[in-house]
Amino acid sequence: MEPTTLFDKIWDAHVVNKIEGGPSVLYIDRHFIHEVTSPVAFSGLESRGLKVFRPQNTVATPDHNVPTIEQHLPIREELSRKQVETLTSNCERHDIPMYGLSHKWHGIVHIIGPELGITQPGMTIVCGDSHTSTHGAFGSIAFGIGTSEVEMVFASQCILQPKPKKMRINVEGELAKNVTSKDIALYVIAKITTSGGTGHFIEFAGSTIRSLSMEARMTLCNMSIECGARGGMIAPDETTFAYLKGREEAPKGADWDQKLAEWKKLETDQHAIFDTEYTFDAADITPMITYGTNPGMGVGVEGSIPDGDDLTGSDRATFLKSLQYMGFHPGEKLKGKKVDYVFIGSCTNGRIEDFRLFADYIKGKKKASWVTAWIVPGSKQVEKQIREEGLVEIMESAGFELRQPGCSACLAMNDDKIPAGKYAVSTSNRNFEGRQGPGARTMLASPLVAAASAINGVVTDPRD
Question: 0.70 exceeded by the pTM?
Answer without folding.
Answer: yes
